[in-house]
Amino acid sequence: MQIDPENKVVKLCAEGMEAEGLGREDEAMNLFIRAWDESSTDFEKFTSAHYVARHQKTITEKLIWDETALTHALSINDGSVDSSLASLLLNIGKCHEDLNNLELARVYYLQAHTHVNSLPDDGYGKMIKSGIAAGIARTNL
Fold it and tell me: Which residues have a Cβ under 8 Å from the Cβ of 28 and sit 6 or more positions away?
């Protein structure tokens, strides 16, 4: 995925990640919400919604933001978010699993699995692949 480091939303999300890393959760959340509020393209909305989702207090709220991110990601038809789809679908599957919607969780885990070839061959990619495999195994109805 090619990310423009000069994009205002990308900058706000980067600042939010930095605040997150320093343990300043409220500041991070405020930056991610500001990024969402300033988003005007599907890519910006996908990116900011993804980060907002990480800071929700309930599984239901997280699911709403992850689904919002997915809606915007699927509206981008240039391949720029392909490597993010496996992770995003994994997150949605996990939310459904945590809400005890096991059949729906399995659907999302299986969808996530169809995108594993877009993942990088590194620690992150291996972590996502492992999470997908574990989710599929846990929801083997």
Answer: 16, 17, 19, 20, 55
Q: What is the pTM of this model?
A: 0.91
Tell the residue number behind the tokens 């900058």, with chain if given: 11
DSSP 79: S
Q: How far is it, in rounded angstroms, from Cα 82 to Cα 47?
A: 13
Identify the CA nearest to 44 among candidates 29, 53, 32, 54. 32
* Residues listed for the chain: 141
Closest CA to 83 of 42, 123, 41, 117: 117
Cβ–Cβ < 8 Å for 32, 41: no
pLDDT in tens, 68-125: 999 999 999 888 898 899 999 999 999 999 999 999 999 999 999 999 999 999 999 9
3-state secondary structure 88-135: HHHHHHHHHHHCCCHHHHHHHHHHHHCCHHHCCCCHHHHHHHHHHHHH
Place of tokens 């391949």: 79
Q: Can you tell me the distance from the alpha carbon of 91 to that of 108, in angstroms, rounded to the nearest whole number?
A: 9
